[in-house]
User: Fold 2-keto-3-deoxygalactonate kinase from Arboricoccus pini.
Amino acid sequence: MTGPALIALDWGTTSLRAYLLADDGRILDRRQAKAGILQIEGGRFHATLETLIAAWQTAHGRLPLITSGMIGSRQGWVEAPYLACPASLDGLAARLVVVPLGDGGRLHVVPGLAVEGDLPDVMRGEETELVGLGAMQDGGLYVLPGTHSKWVLAQGGRIEGFKTYMTGEIFAVLKDHSILGRLMSEGPADEAAFLKGVDVGLEADDRLGGLLHAVFSARTLPLMDRLPATSVAPYLSGILIGAEIQAGRSAHGDRTATLVGGGPLVDLYALAMQRAGLAFTSTPADAAARGLFIIAGAAGLMGR
Assistant:
């Protein structure tokens, strides 16, 4: 039976997930706390970490520590500079940033990735999920829904590039801080309204006067009693997700994508991709934990 070999931390903006991993990568135990970088005051990152993993350290001694996510951003514990694409597993492992801990231990922070050019792009945390999903080995197109969705192309053992779409954040801004939100009412899930919006989003640039014009229909349709107030939010969500999928299809064609993650948002993307006629596969859970294990192995952290 294999024993504990690594503590892996998926440390984001709003949450901290910790995994105790065996030397074959299996998850032996896990902890979670609402201790993302936005919740931690006064730079108490070390104290937060120690509180979460104290029982593991007591039982197993000091184990190698590795983390990824917004903890490595400018607003986090320490900034781990972005690694430019195309990026490989070895490149990520070689660019770990080390944070010395007061007890003699060290925390290793995975860098994010960047695409340079006229319109630069960045990711932080998703690169670790992609490693865990085998993107470096298998290649392919990966879609990661979220507040800032990512469409990532991997091939030849590297992440070649990616594009970020602010779909989730734009929806939240329009819903909470624009005239569109005044006509919205809470209601049950409305798949028909969502798919109607997806159809509009898919065709917005080609036939319907562009995305900005299409979005305004989330006001005019209810004004003209052609869309119930409870259907406005799913309709608007459909427009934005549909437009994102159309942009992804324009960039990558109709190639099969891997849809990353789970939960209601990913379910909506699955509906929208089916509506668009795009083939996709789903992914297993705990990709970040697996990715952290692989990166730690490539960096030689276990066994030190």
Observations:
- The first helix runs from residue 45 to 60.
- DSSP finds ten helices and 15 strands in the chain.
- Residues 139 and 154 are 4 Å apart (CA to CA).
- The domain at 4-133+286-298 is CATH 3.30.420.300 (Nucleotidyltransferase; domain 5).
